[in-house]
From TrEMBL, chain B:
It comes from the Bacteria. It comes from Lentzea aerocolonigenes (Lechevalieria aerocolonigenes). Gene3D superfamilies: P-loop containing nucleotide triphosphate hydrolases (3.40.50.300). Keywords: ATP-binding, Nucleotide-binding, Transport. Residues 8-216 form the ABC transporter domain. SUPFAM superfamilies: P-loop containing nucleoside triphosphate hydrolases (SSF52540). Pfam families: ABC_tran. GO terms for molecular function: ATP binding; ATP hydrolysis activity. InterPro entries: AAA+_ATPase, ABC_transporter-like_ATP-bd, ABC_transporter-like_CS, ABC_Transporter_VariousFunc, P-loop_NTPase, RLI1. The keyword Heme does not apply. This is ABC transporter domain-containing protein. Signal peptide: none annotated. Transmembrane segments: none annotated.
Length: 217, 243
């Protein structure tokens, strides 16, 4: 019997191919690359502190990417996909997995960029710490984007406004948010369990977005 | 929900969007073989098809459908950047199904590797049908003959023979199939300045009369609605709406 897991993996391949074909991913990608270039155009400071700027950048970029992935198919084609896949849960799970994969790709690029561009040598442990921090910020951004994208909000204007508002208001809240936990420890050139907890929060956010989407569909 | 043999059962299904008017009320329909939905615009055909396919949840009622369902919407999107061959390959992988010969049978002409946005309306419709025929159990088609040339339209009728399918159609294809008229339930006539209520109630085909002051709502069988309307006007009533 053709399993649900294989259907979801096939959906991830399809959605990724569709996003690449649609080219709407180029805008957030170019913004990401441009800002990364500025961040690392001079000595960004101690190893883990250098990751705080790129971690703060990945959060809105991944929220943007989440909206791109969730709305890559128009409403009618999404309906066909839902019927083909056997229901909304599989499709929305695949949308979340595709978004997280894109986010992790961005996280790898950001982590390697610092190692290559910084004049300071990085240990493997610092590299892994940076990869973890970037991955957590990607997960948080993906969760915020998915939480307000179709089918939770059906109008793209409302999606953009809601995601923009949450992203913008996250920064002033500082250590009151999981993103703030990550940026705080990186800013002190440290790594702690707070990053892990922020990752758990991000995973819950992404899962919650899937559950909410299934209920609203 | 799955597991209902190879057909679909809609049991006491009702649907409204948000707090809007009811699009479907207490509809029960069992589809085995080919069933054609008919009815005027706005009678809820597309909504019923989406519920049968699993795109929409009913506001109330129960739907039991098989595992493998193919769906063709009323209008296949025209701005898809992916090629037809790539799209069908992906849909096949999602279903765990191999390629079919639907495009050949429908006479698809053009490039399978070009973006679907460059296809004609008819060829795009053939791609939509090809992905739906990957399903093994139930087919749910909303106006599937739209944009097809006569040869392809005739071939589609042949391809639907022997399949379990729920199809909406305005053009009289599939004459031998079971037909369900969604507007066949009743016609509601809203009247004001009502006189001769007893005479209206006694007319053949009148199912119910609900009076409120000088207004009344008359529910009548569709095939008798014209006679009831004529009699209401003859009695001097004002007709506010017919739906």
């Amino acid at each position: 019997m053709f399993g649900a897991e294989r259907a979801v993996i096939s959906l991830v391949r399809y959605l990724a191919a569709d996003v690449f074909r649609g080219q709407r991913f180029l805008a957030p990608l170019l913004v990401f690359l441009g800002v990364m270039g500025m961040l690392f155009s001079y000595d960004p400071g101690p190893q883990l502190s250098a990751y705080s700027g790129s971690s703060a950048l990945i959060y809105p970029i991944c929220a943007w990417l989440a909206v791109v992935v969730a709305t890559s198919e128009d409403v009618v084609r999404r309906e066909i996909t839902v019927v083909s896949a056997g229901g909304w849960p599989r499709v929305l799970s695949a949308v979340a997995m595709t978004t997280v994969l894109f986010g992790l790709g961005v996280a790898v690029v950001a982590t390697v960029w610092a190692v290559v561009a910084s004049p300071r040598p990085y240990t493997f442990g610092e590299f892994l710490a940076g990869l973890g921090a970037h991955g957590v910020c990607a997960l948080l951004g993906a969760g915020v984007g998915l939480l307000f994208a179709r089918p939770v909000f059906t109008a793209i204007g409302r999606t953009v406004m809601a995601v923009f508002a949450v992203v913008v208001f996250t920064y002033p809240l500082g250590r009151w948010t999981p993103l703030g936990w990550v940026l705080d420890v990186l800013g002190h050139n440290q790594f702690s369990l707070a990053v892990l907890w922020a990752g758990v929060f991000g995973a819950v956010l992404v899962s919650g977005a899937v559950v909410l989407g299934v209920r609203r569909a | 929900m799955g597991g209902y043999l190879d057909g679909v059962l809609l049991d006491q299904v009702s649907k409204r969007y948000g707090r809007g008017p009811w699009v479907l009320r207490d509809l029960t329909l069992e589809v085995t073989g080919t069933v054609v939905l008919t009815g005027a615009n706005g009678t809820g055909k597309s909504t019923l098809l989406k519920i049968a396919a699993g795109v929409l949840k009913p506001s109330s009622g129960r739907v039991v459908r098989p595992a493998s369902v193919g769906y063709v919407p009323e209008r296949f999107p025209s701005d898809v950047k992916m090629s037809a061959s790539s799209y069908l390959a992906h849909m096949g992988r999602v279903r765990g199904a191999g390629a079919n010969d639907v495009l050949e049978r429908l006479g698809f002409v053009g490039s399978l590797s070009a973006p679907m946005s460059e296809l004609s309306k008819g060829n795009a419709q053939k791609v939509a049908l090809a992905q739906a025929f990957l399903a093994t159990d139930l087919l749910v088609f909303d106006e599937p003959w739209t944009g097809l040339d006569p040869e392809a339209a005739a071939e589609l009728c042949v391809m639907l023979e022997g399949r379990t399918a729920l199809v909406s159609d305005h053009e009289g294809h599939l004459e031998s199939a079971t037909r369900v008229d969604l507007a066949g339930g009743h016609v509601t006539i809203e009247l004001s300045r009502v006189v001769g209520l007893d005479a209206l109630e006694a007319l053949e085909g009148v199912q119910s009369v609900l009076s409120r002051g000088s207004s009344a709502r008359v529910v009548v069988a569709p095939d008798r609605s014209d006679q009831v309307l004529a009699e209401a006007l003859r009695l001097g009533c004002s007709v506010r709406s017919v739906r």
